[in-house]
Each structure stands twice: as C-alpha cells, then as structure tokens.
Amino acid sequence: MKVFKGVVTTLPPDKSISHRAALIGALAKGTTEITNFSGGYDNQSTLEVLQACGIRLRQELDTLPGGGTVRRVCMESDGFWSLSCPAAPLMCNNSGSTMRMMAGILAAQPFESVLVGDESLMKRPMRRIQDPLTLMGADVSLSPTNTAPVTIRGTRELKPVTYELPVPSAQVKSLVAFAALHADGESRVIESLPSRNHTELMLGLHTEELPDGRRAVIVPGRQEIAARPFYVPGDPSAACFLIALGLLVKGSEIVLKDVCLNPTRAGYIALLLDAGAAIMFENERTVGGEAIGDIIVSWTDSIQPIRISDKRVVADIIDEIPMLAVFSACATGEFELHHAEELRTKESDRISAVVANLEQCGFRCEEYPDGFRVVARASQPSGSVKIECFHDHRIAMSFAIAAEALDMDMALSDAEVIGVSFPNFFDLIRGLEA
Ligand code: S3P
C-alpha cells in the first residue's frame, strides 16, 4: 500500500485570483505585475482573450533557488477603454470565468465582440450574464438555448444599476462589478448568499450588510484604477484533492505551503474538521488582503459522514463538492447533499457525474434534482473500472484520488482535462509517494 508524505511548495496558484488579477490589470492605468500567476489552461485562456483585445502582456518563468518555477505576468494598460476590437471570436476554451467576467468588461467597449468556448462551455447557462448587462444598456445576444456564442454590442454609456443576483455566483457578481466600474454613477450588487469575495478585495470595494442579512457590494463608476502588483496564493480548490489524499491513505502526512485561506473559500475545510479530519494550520498571515497559510494534513481513521443541507454552506464549497462527496464515500461509505442544483451547470453535470462514477466504484447512491446521497458501499469491483470524466477537471481529480484511497485500478476517460486548473497534479502526487 502506498503512503503519501512531504511538503508541497508548488500548489497551483489560485484560479479565481489569477483571472481577476489579469482582468483588473487590463483596466488599471500603468504596469501590473502579477507574481505566481496560474499556468492552468483556464487562466491562460483569460490572457489569450485579453491579448486578442489588444492588451500588451508578457509571461516569464522565474526559477526558484530550491527548484520549481514561478510564473510572472506583466501587463500594460492605459486604464478603462484600453481594449480594441478583436479580429475574431474570443475563444474562452473550458473557462466559464473567462467568458462571464470578460463579458462585463466587453459590455463597456464601443465595439461588437463574440465570446465562444469548447463543447462544455457552449452548453452552460448565459442568461445570468445577459440580464444585468442588458439592464445597464449593453446589447447582448445568446443562442436560442441561452448559451454561447455571446455576442456583445458594448457601449461607453453604461448606466449604473442596483442588481440582486438571482443565483449565488461570484462570476456574475464580478461581471456586474467590472461593467459597473465603467458606468456613469454608483452601482450596487446585492447577494443573499455570500460567494467568494476576491473581486471586492482586489478592487478595494466597500460592502454593506443590509438589515435582512443580504450584502451589497458598492461599485463607484468611472474612478480610475491605479495599477498595483498582485501576488497569487495557492489554490484552496486544488489543495482539497491533496488534503483528501492525505486524510484517506493510511500513514500519510502532507504539508501544503502558502494556500489561500480566504473564509469564502475555506468552507470545505470547516466541514472536514467537523467530520473529524486531522488538519492544522501554520504561518497564517495576510498578503494583499487575502488570508494565506500552510495546511498540515494527516491520515485520519475515524471520519464521520459529511451531510450538507444548508444553502449558505453550498455556496461556499461549490467547487469542492465532488471531492467532498468522494472523500466522505471512501472514508465512511456515506454522503448526503441538498440545495446544490447549481452543480448541474458546471463544467459537467457534477451531480450525475459523481453519482455515475461512484456507482462504478461499487457505491449505492440516490440522485435528487438538487443533490444526492451515497447510501453504502455495496460491492467491490474487481479489475479496472472505467471513470467517465465528462471533460471536467474536478471530476477527473476526485476519482484519481479515489483510486489511491480505495486502492483500485481506475481508467480516467480524459485525464488531460486536469490541466485546466492543476497541470502538475500527477507529478505532485508521484513526488509525495513515500
Ligand atoms: C468562480 C465562481 C464559481 C466557481 C468557479 C470560479 C469565480 O462559479 O464555481 O469555479 O472565480 O468567481 P459561479 O460564479 O458560477 O458559482
């Protein structure tokens, strides 16, 4: 049986913060330097889209004294309205964040642009971006099924809005904020369930708690943003796979250095701790407004099943649910989730994808419109099990970890999709094998 031990200093840089640093860099006047930008395909898509809109940028890999590299991005902009009309449709590949947040910036440009993506992204819902941008005065059209291609006829005369998010979505909150930065007056974006707050932190936006518990993000219009350097900490949504590995495989102990511990991203760690997981923190500090620290995780043999039925919790852990479900199933044979219908609109339908693959691994599950339950491990399949990843990086990584935890031979249908967010995933795991 394998054991995983060691210190990880090369966790992928956070995907959400990398996207935002690049987009803010395109709107800020001057030179923006981003240290530890992610090399994942999704973040590279954002840079390619910005370059296609005329933003000048370069990437460099700095070699670290102890080995490994850090990616640095430098970009130049003259501030708002520095983008130029792209010559062709803007290809966002698999990246919903690129498409949705970029739409907010394109809505304020005085030209027509078209956003397209890969097969998975072309199926994802885009009404949620069309509605607020239309209210602000942009002309946005979608396919007959309300998906991409997203055609945006932008305007320099965007109107400020007060907009309440119909779904808890940090992408939509951010796209409205990016558009509102260009508007002629103050806008307010209201969320009833809190979602990740990197855009607010990175732009220094004020927020207001409303008496009924909702939260308003206040966006002043047309106030020049001065370029500033950004540092991108390690991605907690990538860390979760290595945390699960360390907890599940007997005798393992893994240290993850410099992970983003922003409370709007660390909800899954609280759930793991409640389930009895041995997780500790060290070197906790704040860098550029973001909480970061080291995570120490050790194999734990008495985990309790995870059950999630609180909407507020779901919004906090949306990207980690596949791993949490697989983790709880492997550790205890049980898991339960409700109020998570949003999972069906991610890179794949993550409810069906997790259920189908857990069943392949011998678990008995029940699927609901808004979640699922893992009832028990009914059988232990022999031989190699085929895992269908549905071209979804988080499904592929969750089951790669399950293969180690259950000591099963699993054939992942398209493991290369992991490069979307975690290009060094298998190298890191091999490096931890004691
Ligand atoms: C993200 C927000 C979430 C998340 C995605 C990244 C972001 O999507 O699932 O991986 O960086 O804002 P939604 O906004 O659709 O919930």
UniProtKB/TrEMBL annotation:
Major site of localization recorded for this protein: cytoplasm
GO biological process: amino acid biosynthetic process; aromatic amino acid family biosynthetic process; chorismate biosynthetic process
Residue sites binding 3-phosphoshikimate per the record: 15-16, 20, 169, 171, 319, 346
Binding site for phosphoenolpyruvate: 15, 96, 124, 171, 350, 394
Keywords: Amino-acid biosynthesis, Aromatic amino acid biosynthesis, Cytoplasm, Transferase
Domain of life: Bacteria
GO cellular component: cytoplasm
Enzyme Commission numbers on file: 2.5.1.19
Alphabetized CDD domains for the sequence: EPSP_synthase
A single GO molecular function term of this UniProt record: 3-phosphoshikimate 1-carboxyvinyltransferase activity
Transit peptide recorded as keyword: no
Subcellular location(s) of the protein: Cytoplasm
Domain called Enolpyruvate transferase: residue spans: 5-427
Catalytic activity: 3-phosphoshikimate + phosphoenolpyruvate = 5-O-(1-carboxyvinyl)-3-phosphoshikimate + phosphate
UniProt similarity note: Belongs to the EPSP synthase family.
Protein name according to UniProt: 3-phosphoshikimate 1-carboxyvinyltransferase
